[in-house]
Amino acid sequence: MVFTMPAEKGEIIKISLFKLIRKILPSAVKSRLTQLYHSILLIKICDGWVMAVLDRAHIKCRKYSNKRVFLALRNGDKIPIVMGDLDAQRIAEIFGENVYTPSFLSKYWRNSKVVFDIGANKGIFTLYAARLFPHATIHAYEPNPNLFPRLQENILLNNLQNRCVLSNCAVWHKSDILHFMLGSPKNPGTGQIVRNRKEANDFREVPAIAFTETLQMYQEIDFIKMDIEGAEYDVILRTPCNYLRRIKFIALEYHEHADFNIHDLIGHLRSAHFSVTSRPRGSILYAWQNPGS
Questions:
Q1: In the chain, which ranges are continuous DSSP H helix?
Q2: Residues contacting residue 45 through CB under 8 Å, at least 6 positions apart
Q3: CB 49 within 8 A of CB 151
Q4: Domains contained in the chain, CATH given
Q5: CB-based contact 164:114 (threshold 8 Å)
Q6: Which of 164, 219, 224, 242 sits a CA distance of 20 to 30 A from 19?
């Protein structure tokens, strides 16, 4: 893990505790504890939480297997989930754990007005951002043709169409037509760009917009959440620093890559004057511009 900024004392203690637990406990035990933690969060988040908890705990119920269930969140949002499709897990992580909006860095992302959700999936973070940033315009990009209708549905269901701009395209280092491999039926969010059609059993051609083109839309972008299944290396590393400096805060989920790793991302972000730290659990980098840098 890489930390370039001292966190608050309570956050340092929590990080140290998480590291210790992860070293000591077997993987199966850690997985069960995470499920329990998420279940508690879902009880706090959802009005009708029973189905969400069953889904997150991977408790199979034949009657509801692969069925759509509507969740009503206590904040007023409505989110249809597919049982067994990891939707409840994402709700727990985004609305409960605040994985993209760590409180100890809140001074860098609070009051955001321009937000990009790159790799929006079904729009769970888009909904979260709309609540967290009530005066923001949110641009959501999702190339997967199977997921984009779900993104549209979630935005319409919560009457956010006037604040959210939805684009059924990938974000890439250049504008192009790409081969997009669809994710597994149980986890469609794992769909990703492939360089060679032979690498994919089930792919679609999807349009891509250059990241620099999206950044040119505004003089400053307050917040970017990016989860694009390995394409983050091509997008970030091939974007010139003068474009990256338009961004105030990035929450970037990073993945395994044959040619690059987390240190390449950190080095390039630092060269664009970002401070960078990482989440103690899970593969997320946080990068922010200090005022006046």
A1: 9-24, 27-45, 50-56, 87-91, 106-109, 124-132, 148-157, 211-215, 232-237, 241-244, 262-271
A2: 52, 73, 74, 75, 91, 92, 95, 96
A3: no
A4: 1-97 (no CATH), 102-293 (3.40.50.150)
A5: no
A6: 224
User: Can you tell me the distance from the alpha carbon of 80 to that of 87, in angstroms, rounded to the nearest whole number?
Assistant: 9
| pLDDT per residue of the chain (293 residues) written in tens, 0 to 9 | 444 444 455 655 665 666 666 677 677 877 888 899 999 999 999 998 998 998 888 876 666 677 889 999 999 999 999 888 889 999 999 999 999 999 999 999 999 999 999 999 999 999 999 999 999 999 999 999 989 999 999 999 999 999 999 999 999 999 999 888 776 655 555 666 666 655 556 678 899 999 999 999 999 999 999 999 889 999 999 999 999 999 999 999 999 888 899 999 999 999 999 999 998 777 999 999 987 65
Helices and strands, number each (H, E), in the chain: 11, 13
- CB–CB of 261/236 below 8 Å? no
